[in-house]
Design a protein that fits this description.
The chain has helices at residues 7-10, 16-37, 53-65, 68-72, 74-84, 92-108, 110-120, 122-141, 146-169, 171-175, 180-209, 211-232, 237-240, 255-284, 289-317, 319-336, 344-358, 360-373, 378-388, 390-403, 414-454, 463-468, 481-486, 492-500. The protein has 505 residues and is mostly helical. α16 packs antiparallel against α17. The chain is globular, with a radius of gyration of 25 Å.
């Protein structure tokens, strides 16, 4: 076949069909050249959608289990502190700040962790996290005063969790395109499975081994698992060409990003209040401390089993759609089930059913942000996100305990339950507004692409679609400033139409 003469050149005037075939061949050649050049052009990188990415998913899963999962067991510690007066003259509000302090310190350290990742690579941040977390538990085992717990179980543990979390949270999305949602769901499930294991483990260890040795066992186990997982992780920052900077100021000029931050703030106010209050709420309805630890464990079981399915279905129906709907569903469950839970059976049912949706934010935060600002700005966007979450995570449980009525009242946690439900529903409203913007953005991009295709000789290929491996109706890159100046995507009528129309986003 290679010896055939170039007939299409000899009979050019009559070879219309062959010309079209040649155009397709030339286009295919260009595509092959583009595929080859992707290895050297970070902005055209194609995620492998698997391979070593599954090892990274497993590593992040276990890191989450031994950071956020262990932190989830603080509800058991809190219940023990309140019922045994471990540190005399310490108020319930002070104990509540310890749990919130660990999460807020994890968020507070995010810019430093991002800077270290940019300067020295991911593994330095991860190993610093391993060190701080182990030291925190060793220090807590020798605590004799309240401020010792503040520094060890609160601040030091939070720093360790923050270095590990910031160093690992953005890695799984870098390895996947079509399966990004399910991969992130699996990694997020680690915190639920860890919370299940350590809620039961701490509930059993404290009465048998004592508080001090419970902390020491946690230190040994967490150090061993985290040091292995952290050093097996590999990021793809160079391949993608990520902007690994602590703050990317132009993001604050985008209303969709500000609403996304609102979704996070309100979600965390509800999530922390629910997570840390449930075990103590069990005591308020006449259950024992052991039963309270079981309820807390069931909540974490629901998170662990539900989050992979959240990721899987978000890939099918749209990541923003899924995140907004499940956030609203959690608030709905708090209104119609939690308020009426007065015995062990109903409370266990609530813990299991609310578990998969309570931590929707953590299961979808990276994929949703990638839909809004793109993969390149994802590290910067996440860094800003973690700093924004410092205030709500610090005060959420303190607010919950302040709203709690006198233990002698009929429903001491009623105001806490209403507060939690309203926070989740408000968070869903913020994200639904973002959905309206995203639908209109997709429509504008598709209209522009269609117009360009009809006026061009060669087919127009969207490089970001190749990069993500997703269809245009699933995700597309944010349109350029030149395009947004022509189309006001935040026109109220336009956003309202986007909120009401069905589209997979």
């Amino acid at each position: 076949m290679s010896d055939n003469p170039p007939i299409d050149v000899v009979h050019a005037p009559e070879a219309t069909a062959e010309d079209q075939q040649n155009v397709k061949k030339e286009t295919g050649t260009l595509d092959e050249q583009n595929d080859a050049s992707r290895q050297t052009k970070p902005n055209e990188d194609v995620p492998p959608d698997g391979g070593y990415g599954w090892v990274c998913v497993a590593c992040v899963f276990w890191i989450n289990a031994h950071t956020w999962g262990v932190n989830s067991s603080y509800g058991v510690f809190l219940s023990y502190y309140l019922s045994h007066n471990v540190f005399p003259n310490t108020s319930a509000l002070e104990y509540a700040f310890t749990g919130g302090l660990s999460i807020s310190c994890a968020m507070l350290v995010a810019p430093l962790a991002t800077y270290l990742i940019n300067k020295f690579g991911t593994h330095l941040s991860l190993n610093l996290g391993v060190f701080f977390e182990a030291i925190s538990f060793i220090g807590a085992s020798f605590a004799t005063k309240t401020w010792h717990i503040f520094l060890s179980q609160g601040a030091c543990f939070g720093f360790g969790m923050g270095f590990l979390f910031v160093g690992s949270i953005g890695i799984a999305p870098q390895w996947f395109s079509r399966r990004r949602g399910v991969a992130n769901g699996i990694t997020a499930a680690g915190s639920g499975i860890g919370g299940l294991m350590y809620s039961l483990a701490t509930g059993a260890m404290i009465p048998r081994l004592g508080l001090a040795w419970a902390f020491r066992v946690l230190a040994i186990v967490c150090f061993t698992v985290n040091v292995v997982a952290a050093n097996l992780l590999r990021d793809r920052n160079k391949a993608i060409g990520s902007r690994v900077v602590a703050f990317h100021a132009p993001l604050f000029k985008r209303p969709e990003f500000l609403l996304y931050l609102g979704w996070g703030i309100l979600s965390m106010l509800g999530y922390v209040a629910l997570l840390f209050s449930l075990a103590n709420f069990a005591l308020s309805v006449g259950l024992s401390s052991h039963q309270g630890s079981i309820v807390s464990a069931l909540l974490n079981l629901g998170q662990g089993l539900g989050r992979p399915f959240v990721g899987l279905f978000s890939d099918q129906v749209g990541r923003i759609n899924m995140a907004a709907f499940l956030t609203f569903l959690c608030g709905f469950f708090c209104f119609v089930i939690w308020i009426f839970a007065t015995n062990m059976g109903v409370l266990c049912f609530f813990a299991i059913i609310v578990g998969p949706v309570a931590g929707t934010y953590w299961a979808t935060v990276s994929p949703v942000l990638a839909e809004i600002i793109g993969l390149k700005d994802l590290p910067s966007g996440l860094s800003i996100t973690w700093i924004t979450l410092v205030p709500p995570t610090t005060v959420a449980e303190a607010i919950a305990l302040t709203l709690r009525s006198s233990p002698q009242s009929k429903s001491p946690y009623l105001r806490v339950q209403i507060f939690t439900a309203c926070m989740y529903i408000g968070a869903a409203a913020c994200l639904w507004l973002v959905r309206g913007w995203k639908v209109r953005e997709l429509a504008s991009i598709e209209q522009k692409t269609t117009t360009t295709t009809t006026t061009s000789t060669y087919p127009v290929t969207n490089p970001t679609e190749k990069e993500t491996g997703l269809t245009p109706d699933h995700t597309t890159p944010p349109i350029s400033p030149e395009d947004t100046s022509k189309v006001n995507l935040w026109d109220p009528l336009t956003v309202w139409q986007g909120m009401l129309s069905w589209k997979r986003v």
